[in-house]
Design goal:
This protein has a domain of 132 residues. Helices cover 12% and strands 29% of the residues. It contains 13 helices and 39 strands. The strands form ten sheets. The chain has a five-stranded antiparallel beta sheet, with no helix packed on it. Strand 33 and strand 34 form a beta hairpin.
C-alpha cells in the first residue's frame, strides 16, 4: 500500500533506517568510546560527493585517523554525536559557495526551526533513520538551547493589551486570510483601505513586533479584522495583536511552523466562543481556536502522509472550511532509498463548527500504485504530485471551488498536474479540469529538458553520474520546462458581466480561463520582459478589476528554483484582464544587498502583490517593499525592511527577504512580515501615513 503514517506500526523515519547505512555512509561497525561515530562518516558522505572526490585517498585516510584519535568537543551532549554523524559532513565545513549554513550560522536558528526542518522540512529526507526524539536532540544541540525556551508566549511579553470587549470583527474594514474576498483578488477597495495614492509616499513606520526566536517572519499575509491582527510564525506561535499599537492579546503554540494566513469566522456550539481563527501547520494539522482568547476549539489532521503540510490559507464559506494540502515530497523523491512517490495534493472540507470532515478531493484522481524498482531496488509508486500551494477560490454563484495544482513527482506526469481544477462546493465532485502544462515531472536537483535560463538542454547529455546518484524522472518523459506549478488563481467579473479566472503560472505565463466552458483559454501571455531567462510567478498577483499585476523573478542560477546571491532580477507586469494586453512593465531597481550578500538576496520579486485603488505593492528578495502607480508603473514609495528594528515587545528583531505573502492594507495602515528564508528576518511591521 502507499506510504502513509497509518501503513505501518513504525514511524516513517524508522521504516527508512535500513537504508541509512547503504546510500549515505561507508563506516565501520564500532568506534572508540571517546569519539563520535560521525568523525569517520564525515569523510565518506555521498551527499558531499565533491568533497570526497577531490580529496586524495592518502589524505582522506590521514584525516580519518586523526578524527579517530581526537575527541570531539561536546560529543557526550545529547544530539552532539548525532549532529556529527548526520549533519557535520555538509554543515561542519561547507565549501565556498555552498548553500549549507555552517555551525555558527545554524547556532542562530531556533531549535523549533531546526526541528521543523528535520521533521517536515527540507532536511527531513536527509536523516531517514532518526527517531522523533533523536531529531529533537539534534535540534536542541544545534541551536544551543532547549525547545520551548524562546519566550514566545504572549504572557511573558511586556506589551500586554488592556482588556476590552471583543465585538463583531466584521463590523468594519478588514482583510481576512489570503485576500479580502473569496476570489483571491488581493485587492482592497478604497473604503476599507483608507489609504489614497497621495498618502502612500508619506507612509512611515508606526510599530514593529519581533517574533521571539524566529528567523523567518514572512509566513502568511497578516489578517486584520475588528481592529485585531492575527499572524503565524516559524516558531509555531500564532499571535493576536492590536492593529493600531502592536500590543499583544494572546498567543497559541501549535508546535509546528505556521505558514498559512489565519482566517476568521463565526462559530457555534463551541462554548462561549463566538468567532474562531482557522489555520494550518507544517505537519498538515488544521486548527480552530477562539479568536478572542486563543483557546483551542478543535484540531484535525488534513493528510497523514509523513511530509504533507499546509502552506496556503484555508477558505471559509457558508459554515465550511476548505483547506488546501501540499508537501515536500519533491525533495524526498530524489533519493534512491525513497519509495517515490505517494503524495497527492488535495482540498479538504470541514464543518467549521465541529471540525468534522465533510469531503476530501485529490488533485490527482488516480491513487498511487506500485510500478517498478529503481537501481537500488527500492519500490517506486505513481502517480504522485499535484500539491496545492495556493488558497482555494470560492465561486458561490456557480457553487464551485477552484484550485491550481503543482507539478508531478513521477514521469510521465499525471494529466491532473499543472492544472486549474474545479470542484463542487457541496460534494467535492470534480466539475472540470484544464491542464496548462503536460509532462511536468520534477524532483529537486534533477535535470530537466531546459536549464533555468530557458536554453534547450539535450536530455541525453545530462550528467550520467548525477542521474545515477539520484532518483530522477526519465528526461525523455519531461516537458521542455519543468517545475511550473499553477499557484495563482483569481476570480474576476468583467464589465459586461462575464466571469473569468485569471491564472498565473510559475513559468511566467498568465491566462484567462472561462469557468462556464470548463476552463477554456480566452487569452494567454508571457509576462516576462527577459526572454533569455525564465520568469517565475510564484505566489501570485492582484487585480483591481481593470488590470492584473504580477511580480516576477528571473532565475540566473544553475540551481533549480534558487536565485544566485545578489544576481536575481525581477519586474512587475500589468496586464489588461479583458484582453490579455501588456499595459506596462517596470523592472525592479538593482538589488540593495550588503557585501558579503546573504544567501538568495537579489532584486527578484517572488512575493504576492497587493492592490488598492491607484497603487500596487510588491516586495523584493533584497527586502525592499515598493509602491507602484497603477497608471504607469512608476515607483512612488519604497522602504528597506532588511534592517534592525526597535520592537514594541522588546524582542531583538530585523527584517530580510520579502517573499511568499504580500502586505495587508486596512484602515489606513499597511502590515507586512519581513524575512522569508531561514535566518533572514523575524519582524512584523506596521506603516501608516505621517
Amino acid at each position: 500500500m502507499p506510504l502513509t503514517a497509518s501503513s505501518s506500526s513504525r514511524s516513517w523515519p524508522a521504516r527508512r533506517s535500513a537504508a541509512r547505512a547503504g546510500p549515505h555512509f561507508s563506516r565501520p561497525t564500532s568506534y572508540p568510546t571517546n569519539i563520535t561515530r560521525g568523525a569517520v562518516a564525515a569523510f565518506s558522505c555521498s551527499r558531499c560527493p565533491r568533497l570526497d572526490a577531490a580529496m586524495p585517498k592518502l589524505l582522506r585516510v590521514s584525516l580519518t585517523m586523526a578524527a579517530i584519535l581526537t575527541p570531539v568537543a561536546g560529543w557526550a551532549q545529547p544530539g552532539g554525536s548525532l549532529f556529527e554523524e548526520h549533519c557535520a559532513p555538509c554543515h561542519g565545513n561547507p565549501e565556498p559557495g555552498s548553500r549549507a549554513p555552517d555551525r555558527e550560522a545554524l547556532r542562530q536558528f531556533t531549535p523549533e526551526l531546526v526541528l521543523e526542518s528535520l521533521t517536515t522540512g527540507a532536511m527531513s529526507v536527509e536523516v531517514p533513520g532518526l527517531t522523533d526524539e533523536e531529531r529533537r536532540e539534534v535540534a536542541q544541540w544545534t541551536a544551543g538551547r532547549a525547545l520551548g525556551t524562546a519566550g514566545g508566549d504572549a504572557s511573558s511579553m511586556p506589551n500586554q493589551c488592556p482588556s476590552k470587549p471583543f465585538g463583531d470583527p466584521f463590523a468594519g474594514a478588514g482583510w481576512n486570510g489570503w485576500s479580502p474576498d473569496g476570489g483571491n483578488s488581493r485587492f482592497q477597495p478604497a473604503a476599507a483601505a483608507g489609504l489614497t495614492p497621495d498618502q502612500v509616499p508619506r507612509l512611515t513606520l508606526k510599530w514593529a513586533f519581533g517574533y521571539p526566536g524566529g528567523v523567518r517572519a514572512a509566513a502568511g499575509s497578516p489578517t486584520v479584522v475588528g481592529g485585531r491582527l492575527y499572524a503565524g510564525s516559524d516558531t509555531g506561535y500564532v499571535y493576536s495583536l492590536d492593529a493600531a499599537t502592536g500590543c499583544v492579546y494572546w498567543s497559541f503554540e501549535s508546535k509546528w511552523v505556521v505558514r498559512s494566513s489565519v482566517t476568521i469566522g463565526p462559530v457555534t456550539g463551541a462554548g462561549t466562543a463566538r468567532y474562531a481563527a482557522y489555520f494550518g501547520d507544517a505537519r498538515a494539522n488544521v486548527y480552530a481556536v477562539n479568536a478572542e482568547t486563543g483557546e483551542l476549539l478543535w484540531k484535525q489532521r488534513a493528510d497523514t502522509h509523513p511530509i504533507a503540510r499546509i502552506t496556503a490559507a484555508p477558505k471559509l464559506h457558508a459554515g465550511r472550511l476548505y483547506v488546501p494540502v501540499s508537501s515536500l515530497e519533491e525533495l524526498a523523491g530524489r533519493h534512491l532509498w525513497y519509495e517515490c512517490c505517494t503524495f497527492r495534493g488535495s482540498v479538504v472540507a470541514y464543518d467549521a463548527n465541529t471540525g468534522e470532515q465533510i469531503w476530501k478531493s485529490y488533485a490527482i484522481a488516480e491513487e498511487p500504485r506500485p510500478t517498478t524498482k529503481n537501481a537500488q531496488g527500492t519500490q517506486q509508486w505513481a502517480p504522485a504530485g499535484g500539491a496545492v500551494w495556493g488558497a482555494p477560490v470560492i465561486d458561490a454563484a456557480r457553487g464551485a471551488l477552484y484550485i491550481g495544482s503543482g507539478n508531478g513527482y513521477t514521469a510521465p506526469a499525471a494529466s491532473d498536474t499543472d492544472a486549474v481544477i474545479a470542484f463542487d462546493l457541496e460534494t467535492g465532485k470534480r466539475l472540470w479540469l484544464n491542464q496548462l502544462t503536460a509532462m511536468d515531472a520534477y524532483l529537486s536537483r534533477c535535470p530537466g529538458r531546459i536549464d533555468v535560463q530557458g536554453r534547450a538542454r539535450d536530455p541525453k547529455r545530462a550528467d550520467p553520474q548525477r542521474i545515477a546518484n539520484l532518483n530522477c524522472p526519465d528526461p525523455e518523459k519531461l516537458a521542455e520546462n519543468v517545475d511550473v506549478d499553477v499557484v495563482a488563481v483569481m476570480l474576476h467579473m468583467l464589465p459586461d458581466g462575464r466571469t473569468i479566472l485569471v491564472v498565473g503560472q510559475q513559468n511566467g505565463r498568465v491566462y484567462a480561463l472561462d469557468p462556464d466552458r470548463e476552463g477554456a483559454v480566452l487569452w494567454e501571455l508571457y509576462a516576462g520582459a527577459d526572454t533569455e531567462k525564465r520568469a517565475n510567478i510564484t505566489f501570485g498577483g492582484a487585480t483591481d478589476g481593470r488590470l492584473a499585476y504580477f511580480p516576477l523573478l528571473y532565475q540566473p542560477s544553475e540551481h533549480r528554483g534558487i536565485a544566485a546571491p545578489s544576481r536575481s532580477k525581477g519586474g512587475l507586469a500589468a496586464i489588461r484582464v479583458e484582453t490579455g494586453e501588456l499595459v506596462w512593465y517596470t523592472p525592479t531597481p538593482p538589488a540593495n544587498c550588503p557585501d558579503p550578500s546573504p544567501q538568495r538576496c537579489g532584486s527578484g520579486q517572488d512575493a504576492a502583490a497587493t492592490a488598492i485603488p491607484g497603487v500596487v505593492f510588491a516586495g523584493a528578495m533584497d527586502g525592499m517593499l515598493r509602491a507602484y502607480s497603477t497608471a504607469d508603473g512608476r515607483v512612488i514609495w519604497e522602504v528597506d525592511t532588511a534592517q534592525e528594528f526597535e520592537t514594541v515587545n522588546d524582542v531583538p528583531a530585523r527584517g530580510g527577504m520579502l517573499n511568499g505573502p504580500g502586505p495587508t492594507v486596512v484602515d489606513g495602515m499597511l502590515f507586512t512580515g519581513s524575512g522569508y528564508a531561514s535566518g533572514t528576518g523575524n519582524v512584523l511591521l506596521a506603516f501608516g501615513p505621517e
